[in-house]
Automatic annotation (TrEMBL), chain A:
GO BP terms: glutathione metabolic process
The protein, known as: N-methylhydantoinase B/oxoprolinase/acetone carboxylase, alpha subunit
GO MF term (any one): 5-oxoprolinase (ATP-hydrolyzing) activity
GO cellular component, one term: cytosol
InterPro entries referenced in this protein's UniProt entry, alphabetically: Hydantoinase_B, Oxoprolinase-like
Pfam families xrefs: Hydantoinase_B
Biased composition (Polar residues): 1-15
Region (Disordered): 1-21
Domain named Hydantoinase B/oxoprolinase: residues: 70-632
UniProtKB/TrEMBL annotation, chain B:
Entries under InterPro entries matching the protein: Aceto_COase_bsu/gsu
Organism of derivation: Brevibacterium iodinum ATCC 49514
Domain of life: Bacteria
Protein name: Acetone carboxylase gamma subunit
A matching Pfam family: Acetone_carb_G
Length: 778, 147
């Protein structure tokens, strides 16, 4: 449930309806008139703000009034689970999208109302908490609409997150299961397709400034009619994106996957009957909801607060807060997102609330209780308090091209909160865990391939997020994305057959790229790419975390470092290496520090690079992120420190200054006595340099955010409805404060215009200093 | 009874106090914010996450920008164990990250009837066995714990 009118909510965007004094008959006339004259059926707030499972349908009520044999229900469930996993593998094997090939998809069975009853074990779990929205829309608006309707064999497509999707790059195929003219269930397949016709290739534009820049705006539409793919709509969809072949191929792949599940659904209904089938899937949804409530009661009552700070709009550096207070009270769990920064109306980082909630569910079903069936029931009993108009609950008019910036923070908020909520719980369903890395440090790309095809998509390295440390072992390196169980980072050599760039360095761990701790987080790897053999190519990156660490550690452990994008423009590395093969010794550290290539323009950038045209052989370099560390660094086993040192995973500095270990540089043997002395001394040094909390707070805490940093969100947590923001007026940036509806619309100026202004000002200064008189005509 | 609430923090149910698991140092009222009982250091993040690429040449270097990010290191005043490391914008009030309902916690463990440090583990993994017993000598340190 999203609370919008409970006493806990001070702010609401709804307005009271004036008293109408209409009779029932008159009201009916008004309703009929309004229905007949509706100009536009946009996302329905009644559908989009609700994440609880639907009320039972009359059929479900009737069936569940009688006892349903749980063993039969389990047989149906297992059969569906097998079919869904098989359909998942079909998509993975046949899908044209890179995302499909590396598990960024899911296949599911839904109740008639759209609640996910069961989902493929692998893939994106977040889809279990977001795809009920489009089905509810179809059932509410299209089922009885004479020009649309729902018939056996129909299939519905959508991709727009404002109608319920993780983000606009995902595309669905939702197919009704019908008996005697009634919808009794749904089967759906959803794939991260990549290219969607946005202002930049690849489907996740960091540069979008309006919703129209986000690409295809597919509201739920009937793309398949009685088993036949509608060519007119297909053509429209193909025509709207850069990769028409991909669009056709994967719509067919999704139809095939759904057909496979549908066969098993039909067999199950034939064997057990409609009522048993419908009852079984509804029972699964309700059982999950009930079990989640029970597990909430196992956690101690209290409030855990997680504040996160994101350092970029993907065009300029800012600080925007993602606030979360997670309260357990008996069988209630309340996630209060107030204090989160306001939306920025011309930047791509905003997220619709439904997409944000999907990642609350992702945390619950993958990191809290991974044993539960992936179902809408998992998030259903959890209450969410959120102010519409914030960047995690954005308005219809906000661009959302890179909404993962906000929605992934919902995941991290619950992942971090759970480490504290669950610590004292005796029966755990997942291990205590430091924060998982939460950015898709990756290259998106687009242009003309060596086969003369237009493409736009991304490297599968987005799946190379590193795991957080556990209290008993180090985190795993580049193991899996937070959003996708058992994904893969793909084979670069396979990709190079299809796209005109090479990963000159791929999957080499970056030294010191580590969340330090008693147990360290998993480490991220380096990627260096360069375009080759293409008339037209470019790269982009879509993440934050170049100035403020994206994840912290847990219980004394440190978080990840920050990550730059480094580029060397104006060179052709292929020519250089051809002349001198020794120059193939590439690493970001060596290339950027030694600047070995004459004529190269060496530069760093934050990780939000809009589509950048790449000449042949120019270098683009990034690193995957590290997971958070666990526990005090001084408790790390010195042998583990030395093992990392031997493998060049850490530098001498980190071994000596962070972990406080002494060793013999010849033999790498730990000097246990000296290590003990160093660690004792460091503990004493901590006591000496640190201040009592009250004294520290008095000195450290300021009334307001730093004046020179554009800041968005509450300051502290005592009054999370009072937000700070930076707005740009006639005289440049200006700090404002107030509730979310009191703060003016935030539009960030074009950064190039800002830079030109700064440069012009500098020119004026220099002209004055050197008394050069120049007439500047405007 | 002592209930481990994090790797280094107990709540002592009888005294209703936060306590360091390493040295038994008293960290304040368990109904309040344990951070109030700690010592804190404002760490320049460049000292932990040092630059990999030359900061004199480049703006983004793998090091957090100290104008954007600070690391607040909380340690136990008794033993210097680092209890928490919090990444915050400069000047932002420290997050009160945990407030527990102590009456409910007491009732829960009374109902459960087992000693918390004996039954809490790190999770279902076969390696997730936890030894969350006090690291200090309970008999020797108990009188000093209420300092």
């Amino acid at each position: 449930m999203t609370t919008t009118d409970s006493p806990q909510i001070a702010h609401t965007h709804s307005h009271p309806t004036p008293e109408t004094h209409l009779t029932a008959e008159e009201q009916e006339w008004v309703n009929a008139f309004m229905n007949d004259t509706t100009l536009f059926l946009g996302p329905d707030p009644e559908i989009m703000r609700e994440h609880s499972i639907a009320e039972r349908t009359p059929l479900e009520t009737r069936i569940l009034a009688n006892d349903l044999d749980p063993l039969v229900a389990d047989r149906i469930r297992r059969r569906l689970a097998g079919a869904l996993d098989e359909a998942f593998e079909m998509c993975e094997s046949m899908g044209a999208a890179p995302g499909a090939k590396w598990a960024d998809l899911s296949v599911a069975v839904y109740t008639a109302s759209g609640d996910v009853a069961y989902m493929s074990n692998r893939g994106v779990i977040a889809f279990s908490a977001v795809l009920h929205h489009p089905i509810r829309h179809i059932m509410k608006y299209w089922k009885d609409e004479p020009t649309v309707g729902i018939n056996p064999g129909d299939g519905f497509f959508h991709n727009d997150a404002r109608f319920g999707m993780v983000h606009n790059t995902d595309q669905s195929m939702l197919v009704p299961v019908m008996r005697e003219g009634e919808v009794i269930a749904w089967v759906g397949a959803t794939i991260h397709e990549g290219e969607n016709g946005a202002c930049e290739p690849g489907g996740m534009p960091s540069g979008s400034e309006t919703p129209f820049d986000d690409g295809l705006r597919g509201s739920p539409m009937k793309i398949v009619e009685r088993g036949k793919l509608r060519r007119d709509l297909l053509t429209f969809l193909q025509h709207s994106t850069r990769d028409p072949k991909l669009m056709l191929a994967d719509i067919k792949v999704k139809m095939g996957a759904v057909k496979r599940v549908m066969d098993i659904v039909d067999q199950s209904i034939e064997e057990f009957g409609v009522e048993t089938f419908v009852g079984s899937i509804r029972m699964t949804v309700e059982d999950v909801e009930e079990e989640v409530r029970r597990r909430i009661t196992e956690m101690p009552d209290g409030t855990v607060t997680v504040n996160q700070f994101v350092d970029s709009t993907l065009k300029e550096n800012i600080l925007i807060k993602f606030a979360a207070k997670v309260t357990v009270n008996g069988d209630r769990l309340i996630v209060d997102l107030r204090g989160t920064g306001p939306e920025i109306i011309n930047r791509a980082i905003n997220s619709p609330l439904a997409s944000t909630k999907a990642f609350l569910s992702q945390a619950i079903l993958s990191y809290w209780w991974p044993d539960l069936p992936r179902s809408t029931g998992a998030l259903s009993p959890i209450e969410v308090i959120s102010d519409e108009g914030t960047w995690a609950d954005c308005s219809y008019d906000a661009p959302t091209g890179q909404n993962l910036q906000a929605s992934f923070r919902a995941f991290s908020a619950l992942q971090i909160a759970y480490a504290k909520l669950q610590f004292s719980v005796t029966e755990k369903y997942a291990n205590v865990l430091a924060p998982w890395f939460n950015q898709i440090n990756n290259f998106l790309w687009g242009g003309t391939t060596q086969h003369s095809e237009q493409v736009g998509n991304l490297c599968a390295d987005l799946n190379g997020m590193s795991g957080g440390a556990k209290p008993f072992q180090d985190g795993e390196d580049a193991v899996a994305p937070l959003f996708c169980a058992m994904a893969d980072t793909g084979e670069q050599e396979v990709m190079e057959e299809e796209v005109p760039f090479l990963q000159l360095v791929s999957k080499r761990v970056v030294r010191d790229n580590q969340g330090f701790g008693k147990f360290r987080g998993g480490m991220g790897y380096e990627m260096i790419v360069a375009a080759r053999n293409t008339p037209n190519w470019g790269f982009m990156t879509v993440t934050s975390g170049a100035s403020f660490s994206s994840v912290a550690g847990l219980f004394g452990g440190y978080g990840c470092p920050t990550y730059p994008l480094a580029m060397v423009k104006g060179i052709n590395i292929f020519d250089i290496v051809k002349k001198d093969p020794s120059q193939f010794d590439l690493s970001m550290e060596r290339v950027m520090n030694e600047q070995p290539f004459e004529g190269g323009k060496y530069q760093t950038y934050h990780m939000g690079l809009q589509f950048d045209v790449a000449q042949e052989g120019e270098l683009y370099m990034i690193a995957q992120g590290a997971g958070g560390g666990y526990g005090d660094v001084l408790e790390r086993d010195p042998e583990n420190v030395l093992e990392d040192l031997r493998l060049d995973r850490i530098s001498d500095r980190v071994a000596r200054d962070i972990y406080q270990v002494a060793w013999d540089p010849e033999t790498f043997a730990v000097d246990a006595e000296e290590t003990q002395r160093m660690r004792d001394a460091e503990r004493q040094a901590r006591l000496k340099r640190s201040k009592p909390y009250a004294e520290f707070v008095k000195e450290f805490v300021k009334e307001e955010p730093p004046a020179d940093v554009p800041y968005f969100g509450s300051w502290g947590q005592e009054n999370d409805e009072h937000l700070y923001a930076t707005v740009w007026g006639h005289n440049g940036p200006e700090r404002v404060e107030g509730t979310v509806d009191e703060i003016p619309l935030i539009t960030v100026p074009n950064r190039h215009v800002v830079k030109i202004g700064q440069l012009e000002e500098r020119i004026r200064e220099l002209e004055e200093r050197y008394e050069e008189v120049t007439q500047h005509r405007t | 009874m002592k209930v481990p609430m994090t790797e280094y923090l107990y709540i002592d149910l009888e005294s209703e106090r936060w306590q360091c698991r390493v040295c038994a140092h008293d960290l304040g009222d368990a109904r309040g914010n344990y951070k109030e009982g700690t010592l804190v250091y404002d760490r320049n993040p460049e000292e932990i996450h040092s630059p990999h690429i030359d900061p004199t040449k480049y703006k983004y270097t793998f090091s957090p920008d100290p104008g954007f990010c600070r690391i607040l290191e909380y340690c136990c005043p008794g033993c210097g164990t680092q209890i928490e490391a919090e990444y915050l914008p400069p000047g932002h009030p420290p997050t009160v990250d945990m407030i527990w309902d102590i009456d409910s916690l007491k009732e829960r463990w009374a109902r459960f009837g087992e000693n918390a440090v004996d039954v809490i583990n790190y999770g279902p993994d076969e390696n997730a066995l936890a030894d969350l017993r006090p690291r200090y000598d309970e008999a020797a340190t108990a009188p000093a714990a209420q300092s």
